[in-house]
Design goal:
482 residues, alpha/beta, three-stranded parallel β-sheet, 15 strands
């Protein structure tokens, strides 16, 4: 039975599962690259691409990424660039941006030819055609055609990128401008061929588990609801059965961030300044790389919930390594500047569980300390600022006004308004993924199901306060500033 309807994602999962299985068994070596290519593409008939040789090469490059290696051999490899192009898979999109369709009637007006300033339009025997050696892809012909017979198409990866970091090389293959890229994973989520994927540290984590390294797992709030009807205590126990000593909610760190970030918000408001939240790493990357003045003046100095609970655990258990688990690929870049040792996506965690034949629905749950629903709702768009307002309420302090920017496009607009001093609210909560973390590119379930399951399970804890979490987990001596 397939886990994903998206066939490229299913192939990715199949590769992750088999790499995980071999790694846990201590049998992972370079032979798996060819072995999986023939195991997953066994016949001589191509189902997805021009030939089985192309399909097998795609599996080889996927396998390399699952092993933590670049999809192809490169002279210079930047470990901070998480999102990569699988070149063998990147050939299914039309290379031409402007196309003449069969709707062309070879009309007498020849509006397209008149509109073209580069003499690139010609009239053929049956319809107009474009001399691409001259075409500048300006779109004038598209706007001029009365039949809408000339169309402008944007590749999904390029259209989805909020910072114009996707370009095409001389062969028509996508390439990523690493100076612009914020590792949000939007291109990865939108590519219908699975030609853009994230680098993996899964084998590193498995080798640590095999070596009995003392390790804690930290999981994002959106893990709740990812595994069918499994409850959060069951999922936590399933993670322990992989070999982790304990599994902690990042939502505990979210409670701490909301509690202390409210102080920054009040301070900024008193000084007549605006402040942004620090939860989403892609949003922070967007501010730092593309709005540096706003980043310096307005982005909260608080660390993310992941780093907050990470610092707490490192303070009390300095000999333990920490592994974060979430739906976000940008976190894999963030951990490189933090106390967290490794980062796994939910796809990778699921592959590990399946490879070890651990079903979260069937394990006996182990109840322990939990975060508040306010901290858990950091996973849902608008939840970060709502938690901050709750922290203000619990401290009987003045409220601040907050605005939620849903998705990278809305974040760019809000940051631009903040740059020119036209942003109205006191606090800007920005999430690169529309809908929040539950819509992250490495989620397993769809957002409505996750949200419904979270609401159902969290209803039992709706009265738990943020303050009560901090009574159990004392952050008073933990530095939470970046």
């Amino acid at each position: 039975m397939s886990l994903f309807e998206h066939e490229a994602r299913q192939f990715k999962f199949d590769v992750l599962r088999e790499v995980s299985r071999r790694c846990f068994d201590g049998k992972l070596d370079e032979t798996i690259v060819d072995d999986l290519a023939y195991q997953l593409i066994p016949g001589k008939h191509a189902d997805f691409r021009c030939c089985v040789y192309k399909e097998r090469e795609i599996i080889r490059q996927r396998t390399r990424m699952a092993m933590g290696k670049a999809p192809t051999l490169t002279k210079q490899d930047n470990p901070r660039q998480i999102v990569r192009v699988i070149e063998a898979a990147c050939d299914g999109c039309s290379i031409r941006k402007i196309l003449v369709t069969d709707n062309c009637r070879k009309c007498m007006a020849k509006s397209c030819m008149a509109a073209c300033k580069f003499d690139a339009m010609r009239m053929g025997a049956d319809h107009a055609y474009i001399d691409y050696a001259k075409c500048k892809e300006c779109g004038a012909c598209v706007n001029a055609c009365p039949f809408n017979a000339i169309v402008e198409t944007m590749r999904p990866c390029r259209a989805s990128c909020p910072v114009d970091a996707i370009e095409m090389d001389e062969n028509g293959l996508a390439q990523i401008d690493e100076e612009k890229c914020i590792n949000c994973g939007a291109c990865q989520a939108k590519c219908p061929f699975g030609a853009i994927e994230d680098m993996s540290w899964m084998t590193d984590v498995i080798n640590e588990l095999r070596n009995k390294t003392k390790m804690f797992a930290i999981f994002a709030p959106s893990l709740q609801g990812q595994f069918d009807e499994a409850t959060l205590p069951q999922i936590k126990q399933a993670i322990r059965e992989l070999g982790f000593e304990q599994a902690y909610e990042a939502a505990i760190g979210a409670d701490a961030v909301a509690w202390y970030e409210r102080e920054d918000a009040l301070k900024h408001k008193a000084e007549g300044k605006k402040i942004t939240t620090s939860c989403c790493p892609a949003f922070v990357n967007l501010a730092r790389q593309h709005f540096p003045i706003v980043y310096e003046n307005n982005v909260s100095h608080m660390v993310s919930p992941m780093v907050a609970i990470g610092r707490y655990l490192k303070h009390h258990y300095p000999d333990h390594k920490l592994v974060f688990m979430g739906p976000c690929v940008a976190k894999k870049q963030e951990v490189q500047d933090s106390c967290i040792d490794y980062c796994l996506t939910f796809e990778e965690v699921a592959a590990m569980l399946v490879s070890r034949q651990i079903s979260p629905e069937n394990v006996i749950p182990c109840e322990d300390d939990i975060a508040s629903t306010h901290g858990r709702n950091f996973a849902i768009g608008g939840g970060v600022s709502k938690a901050m307002l709750e922290a203000l309420k619990e401290n009987s302090e003045d409220e601040v006004s907050a605005e939620y920017a849903d998705g990278s496009a809305a974040c760019k607009k809000a940051l631009l308004l903040m740059k020119v001093n036209r942003f109205q609210a006191d606090v800007l909560e920005g999430m690169a993924c529309v809908g929040g973390c539950i819509c992250g590119p490495a989620s397993i379930e769809n957002a409505p199901k996750i949200k419904a399951r979270m609401a159902k399970e969290n209803a039992n804890y709706k009265d738990k306060t943020i303050a009560s979490t901090l009574q159990t987990f004392d952050f008073s001596d933990i530095d939470l500033h970046r």
